[in-house]
Each structure stands twice: as structure tokens, then as C-alpha cells.
Amino acid sequence: MISFNQVEKYYGDTLALSIPQLTLEAGIYWIQGENGAGKTTCLKMLAGLLPFKGQVLLDDHIDSRKAPIAYRKKVNYAVAEPLYPEFLTGHELIQLYLDTKGPGPYAVEELARTLGAGSYLQTPVGTYSSGMLKKLSLLLAFLGNPSLILLDEPLITLDVATVAAMYGLISRMHATGVSFMITTHQALSEEGLLLTGTLQVAHKTMVRL
């Protein structure tokens, strides 16, 4: 579960997003909205990457502002266009994440095989294509023991087989209690992913449809 209470995000004096009160039970949520509506801003706030006013509470007791370390250990985030230090290998990035997040229920080898990323993780990320970077970012998002995984435009640059594999991972992790918030302009397949609900970001707020 995640709840918003009097959440406001300003850029300077300009209000970007206001969520007075919203509580979401554990589930898989599709966040919709036009370009520039504030979807990525919302995810970055939830990921602990942007400061804001108000309160975001995870699992009824972890406050993102009062307990930022505990909160961020339970929230994983895959950005829309991943960018990593080019001299590091995928394996080195994975090890860095594991050192931070701790081990989880899925072995790295299993995730890499499922997402089709196993063949290139020993090479520097500067040699990766956009699709390879996207697969790595998804793999990193599935590490550890998160309560919430945020996926920003996860479908772009992915082939059909990897999208199906990602849907499978999301469904399996959700069955163990992990929640997902996903932004995408592409329709999420109802056949591949059973959604709990849809959220709309518009007019500088987010509501459940």
C-alpha cells in the first residue's frame, strides 16, 4: 500500500503536481497522462529522487521523508531512458545494486536469462544499444526485496518476447506482494498483465479512474 497526503511538488514558484489525498492498495497500476503532465515527476518523487511537500507513506509505516534510507531500500525505479557510467560493465552495476539493496528472491542469472540480457553483462555499458540498456535497467529494478517497483515507459525499445517476459516477472512478483506503478503511452496488454487500476495525471494532479 502507498498513500499520499497533501503532496505538492513545485519547480520554483510553479506548482507541478498536487495530490491532496490518495491511498492505493497493493497492486499493478497503469499511470496515464499526456506528455508533460507530470507522470515522470510523480515517479521521481515516489523514488525519493525529488523533494516535495507533504507525506508519502509506504506499507502503512515507512515515511519517505522521515525514513529515506529504509524507504528507498523498498522502492526500485527504472527510468525511461537509462544512462549509466559507460566504463562500468552491466555486471558491476548489478553488484553495486545488490550491495545497496541486498539479495532478493530472484537470482541475477535467472533475471538475466528471462530478460535476454545474459550475453552482454560482462561488457562495458558504453557498448550497449538502447534495447540492451533498457533490459539492464529492468533487471536492476527487479533486484532486492522491494515493496514497490516504478517503471517509466518500460515498453519502449523492447522486442515482443522481452515484453512478454517482463509481464511474466511483474505478475510473479505481484503474487508475492510487490506493487507496480507503470507509465506508458503504449497500451498495456490485458492478456499479459492483470491491472489493479488506472491512474490519470492531468491538470497538475493524479486521480484514480
UniProtKB/TrEMBL annotation:
InterPro entries assigned to the protein according to its UniProt record, in alphabetical order: AAA+_ATPase (IPR003593), ABC_transporter-like_ATP-bd (IPR003439), ABC_transporter-like_CS (IPR017871), ABC_Transporter_VariousFunc (IPR051782), P-loop_NTPase (IPR027417)
Ranges for domain ABC transporter: 2-209
Superkingdom of source: Bacteria
GO MF, any single term: ATP hydrolysis activity
UniProt cross-references to PROSITE patterns, sorted A to Z: ABC_TRANSPORTER_1, ABC_TRANSPORTER_2
Annotated keywords: ATP-binding, Nucleotide-binding, Transport
Protein name: ABC-2 type transport system ATP-binding protein
Provenance organism: Chitinophaga costaii
Lineage of the organism: Bacteria, Pseudomonadati, Bacteroidota, Chitinophagia, Chitinophagales
